[in-house]
């Protein structure tokens, strides 16, 4: 029988522009490029067309790279037996870390790249893509779940 979960968090980076928003931005950029290109073509400055097209391609590639970074996520699960961190990177590769929860320390200040979870000489940094206020919120959620785990069972 599997242990009950005391905590189940999924951490994802924030992306403010939706796919629909991305399409609108690209459509406006392409329309502006075509309009500007026609004007420059009429004025005889036809080489400008290549630069306008290059701008559109570079903006598109930058957005695609940003969305690839948005595929990163981490799943944190705490049961009475183990704290598990499953990480998926931007290429879809998965890594799994397991820490003993009874010795677990949660520290936001020691890790420049997120939140450090340490237990018995092993540590893992999580949430490197989160802003500091969200990191503190995640740390507090993990601490609260650990407090529930460490609280002695009350007997009637």
Task: Describe the protein in words.
This protein is of the alpha+beta class. The protein has 2 domains: 7-12 and 73-150, PH-domain like (Roll), CATH 2.30.29; 19-69. The protein contains 3 helices and 7 strands, in the order E-H-H-E-E-E-E-E-E-H. It has helices at residues 19-42, 48-69, 132-150; strands at 7-11, 73-78, 83-88, 94-99, 105-107, 115-119, 122-126. It has a 4-stranded antiparallel β-sheet, covered by helices on one side. A 3-stranded antiparallel β-sheet has the order 5-6-7, covered by helices on one side. Strand 2 and strand 3 form a beta hairpin. Helix 1 (19-42) runs antiparallel to helix 2 (48-69). The protein is rod-shaped.
Short description:
The chain is α+β, with helices and mostly antiparallel strands and 156 residues long. The chain is built from three helices and seven strands.
Annotated CATH topology of the largest domain: PH-domain like
Rounded Rg: 24 Å
Round the mean pLDDT to the nearest integer and report it: 88
Second CATH tier, the architecture of the largest domain: Roll
Structural class: alpha+beta
Strand content: 15-25%
Number of domains: 2
Shape by Cα distribution: rod-shaped
As laid out across the biggest beta sheet, the strand order is 1-2-3-4
- Poorly predicted regions: none
């Amino acid at each position: 029988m599997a242990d009950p979960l005391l905590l189940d968090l999924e951490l994802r980076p924030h992306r403010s522009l939706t796919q629909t928003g991305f399409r609108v931005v690209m459509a406006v950029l392409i329309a502006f490029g075509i309009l500007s290109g026609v004007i420059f073509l009429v004025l005889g400055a036809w080489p400008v067309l290549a630069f306008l097209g290059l701008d559109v391609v570079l903006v598109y590639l930058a957005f695609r790279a940003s969305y690839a970074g948005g595929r990163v996520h981490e799943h944190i699960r705490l049961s009475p037996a183990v704290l598990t961190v499953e990480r998926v990177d931007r290429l879809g590769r998965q890594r799994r870390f397991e820490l003993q929860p009874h010795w677990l320390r949660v520290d936001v200040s020691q890790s420049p790249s997120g939140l450090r979870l340490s237990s018995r000489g092993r540590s893992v940094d999580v949430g490197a893509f989160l802003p500091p206020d969200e990191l503190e919120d995640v740390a507090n959620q993990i601490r609260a779940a650990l407090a529930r785990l460490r609280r002695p069972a009350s007997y009637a």
